[in-house]
């Protein structure tokens, strides 16, 4: 059996978790998309076809593709997992004890396929055929959601991230995404692919409120050589980084975490929207955001169970030292200032490396792709006219589960 291990961003990718966008997208409307963290409403069928093209491109590169919906259906087939998910996602605190009990009872009659579809894709009050004496239903209109859809599950990168020999089950910043993590907790605990396998759960697997310790996988780059680069963005906090770092060091899975402070803006929601690793010594960077003077810290274990945190002058220098390279090759977003800003918005810098020097990116980012090509990086292009509206590229939409070291 292959090992659950991610040793880098650029080593040969072997197994990856994706989520094909389906029912959740059908619930996106102009009036609710912003609270569901989407900038726009997507054409559902076209988005699905584009996603299939992405999955097939990965398969052609000998990458095994796992689909979240299928894993969830197979996890729900295990009684203990089904019971835990219904109790957790339909909790007494979320719905009040009366309505939670009635709702759980209704959902527990569904087959696994239907239940997975509802948990991922949402349910409106108008679709609920049960009567409950709880106050809650009478306070809602028919089109309000009993179970909010989870369209951001498309971005499997964020909810959990594998770092060397383990996984972080990320406490997400925004309420619209927090329920996603429980699906991954159930899958990693009960699904046959993961149950009984040797891997560490660093963080986020307890039934706790993690307070200010937020972390999302789009900010976590496993650059290799025992180092991890993490962005402090609008979604990842210093508290989240320090908790993850403490557990990486405790389990001796990393020797350094480099933390870099990003501007809090929607255009760079996560580090990987402005910087990705393409080859051992090569990064794509959006220079408007990734300036050389960004505040950067190095976190290392100090040998007695605590860690040393020190400010370092440059994230570039810190990466060069971590990777033992003399000088990083930095490829900036292509085109003039207007084109570069447009292409960064359309995820030109958010590419998924499948092996050193070979990446997957959206075909629409012509200027940047041309620059990558000239720098010797092969770009396997996928359509992204619909998928890109969710503000996430190939890296955002993929959660590597198995990848070689550099």
TrEMBL record:
Q: Quote the subcellular location field of this record.
A: Cytoplasm
Active site per database record: 396
One GO biological process this protein is involved in is: L-arginine deiminase pathway
Biological pathway: Amino-acid degradation; L-arginine degradation via ADI pathway; carbamoyl phosphate from L-arginine: step 1/2
Reactions catalysed: L-arginine + H2O = L-citrulline + NH4(+)
Q: Which GO terms describe its molecular function?
A: arginine deiminase activity
Q: What Pfam families does the record point to?
A: ADI
Keyword terms of this UniProt record: Arginine metabolism, Cytoplasm, Hydrolase
InterPro entries hit by this protein: Arg_deiminase
What Gene Ontology cellular-component terms does the record carry? cytoplasm
Q: Tell me which EC number(s) this protein carries.
A: 3.5.3.6
Which principal EC class is assigned to this enzyme?
A: hydrolase
**Which family does the UniProt entry place this protein in?**
Belongs to the arginine deiminase family.
Name by which UniProt lists this protein: Arginine deiminase
Tell me what organism the protein belongs to.
Answer: Vibrio xiamenensis
